[in-house]
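Students often ask what a holo structure prediction actually looks like on paper. The answer is less mysterious than it sounds. You provide the chain, you provide the ligand, and the output is a string of discrete structure tokens encoding the 3D arrangement of the protein together with IPE.
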Amino acid sequence: MSERPRVESPAALPVPRSVAIIMDGNGRWARSRGFERIRGHERGIQAVRETVEECARLGVQGLTLYAFSEENWSRPQREIDLLMRLLERFLVEERATLMDNRVKLLHVGRRERLGPSVLQKLDESVAMTAGNPGMRLGLAISYGGRAEIVDAARRLAREVRDGRLDPELIDEARFREQLYRPEIPDPDLLIRTAGEMRVSNFLLWQISYAELHVETVCWPDFRKEHLHAAFRAFGGRVRKFGAVAP
Ligand code: IPE
Ligand code: IPE
Ligand code: MG
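The corresponding structure tokens follow.
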């Protein structure tokens, strides 16, 4: 069902400094097999584990995974509850993997609508991995790109109101510092699974010069070979950043 691209030799792979992934298609994966949508979310965890380990192993510095968007709150309550329970489980069960791979976990998103139990597990995992020197793993939960920009603008506005910031000093670097996790480098590569050609409100500020790679397989079928194929495609791109190609 899922086509598996040939395995690339990791040594020869171009490795982006920072990667972002829209992990899409869990529901379709499940429905096409006659399962409930939640089964797709459950199966997606294996793909998360494999992707995190492989990115860490290859030396990716920042990986941001879109797990739950601001707009996903509009899904049926039952799916939201199951997803939150799954996230909690993930946050506890993956601690060993994160520690083994020296990964530092960070939450990317708003905290307000998350329940106390998810927040507790999130905070514990973030604290536990805080000293890890390896890859920064941003988990985007209750995340919206526009919300992030609004939140950053509000924080800057407060600084100006309180007389701590001259508006004339607001530039791109200053603005970026107010985003949720400025310590994660802007993605060089944005991968989306399940074939959709849209960004769905993900990292709107940060992806301004990211290379886009759309993979047809649904997220539960995403394996390291697909990651390698995305990196290989990335390596073939000519990045110009608005200038003339060399
Ligand atoms: C992505 O899979 C996971 C989340 C958004 C939480 P979907 O649940 O969006 O799966 P499809 O797109 O309906 O197949
Ligand atoms: C984006 O996928 C959000 C996540 C992967 C968490 P969606 O499935 O919510 O996006 P749309 O609705 O297809 O744009
Ligand atoms: Mg979807």
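The radius of gyration is 18 Å.
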